[in-house]
Amino acid sequence: MATKNKLPPMRRYITTHSKDGEAVFVSPNQIPECVPSRPAGDDGDLALVYATATFPVQAHDETDVAIYDDFMHTPPDLTTPMGTVMRVIDMKPGKVTPMHRTVSFDYGVVMEGEAELILDSGERRLLRRGDFCIQRGTSHSFRNTSDSDWCRLIFVFLPMEQLTVAGRQLGEEWYDEQYESGSESVGQGGEPEARER
Question: Where are the beta strands (DSSP E) in 13-150?
Answer without folding.
Answer: 15-17, 23-25, 37-39, 44-51, 85-91, 100-101, 104-112, 115-119, 124-127, 132-136, 140-144
